[in-house]
Amino acid sequence: MTPEETRLWGALRGHRLGGFKFRKQQPIGPFIADFVCQAQRLIVEVDGSQHADSEQDLRRDAFLTDKGYRILRVWNNDVTRNFSGVLAAILAALSDPHPPIAAQWAPPSP
């Protein structure tokens, strides 16, 4: 893990952020997510500038979204310079209701 990922993991592990459980370096299909809260289907990615406008990330995001995940990307420099803002953004995403997987693909009720 990068130093920024290590710092964020310190705030996410052990249900420390809002009581939510996160896993680090979680395989999902052919990809590895930095941090995942399975209960809320939220992936948190900590990225550097090499990820700006990355086509590979677009394909990865499409795959993960298709599997019912939401993706929150935070920049390394935000983890370093605005850590409380990053934590607030993650909490806001966790607080946003997310439909269960079945409901996302279920046909409308007649």
Question: Could you characterize what this model shows?
Answer:
- The structure is a single chain.
- This protein has 110 residues and is an alpha+beta fold.
- It has a single domain (3-103), classed as 3-Layer(aba) Sandwich (Endonuclease, Chain A).
- It is 42% helix and 23% strand.
- The protein has 5 helices and 4 strands, in the order αβββαβααα.
- It has a 4-stranded mixed sheet, with helices on both faces.
- The relative contact order is 0.17.
Summary tags:
4 strands; globular; alpha+beta; four-stranded mixed beta sheet; 110 residues; single chain; 42% helix; Endonuclease, Chain A
List the helices and strands and how they pair.
Elements: H1 3-12, E1 23-28, E2 31-37, E3 42-47, H2 55-66, E4 70-75, H3 76-81, H4 83-95, H5 101-105
Parallel strand pairs: 3-4
Antiparallel strand pairs: 1-2, 2-3
Q: Report the structural category.
A: alpha+beta
Q: What Rg is obtained from the alpha carbons, in whole angstroms? A: 14 Å
The total beta strand count reads 4
What is the overall silhouette? globular
CATH homologous superfamily placement: VSR Endonuclease
List the secondary-structure elements in sequence, H or E: HEEEHEHHH
Tell me what portion of residues adopts beta-strand conformation.
15-25%
Q: What is the arithmetic mean of pLDDT?
A: 87
**How many H/I helical runs?**
5
How many structural domains?
A: 1
Main sheet record: 4 strands, mixed
Residue runs with pLDDT of under 50 for 5 or more positions: none
Strand ordering within the main sheet: 1-2-3-4
Q: According to CATH, what is the class?
A: Alpha Beta
Helicity range of the residues?
40-55%
How does CATH name the architecture?
3-Layer(aba) Sandwich
CATH topology: Endonuclease, Chain A
Measure the end-to-end span.
49 Å
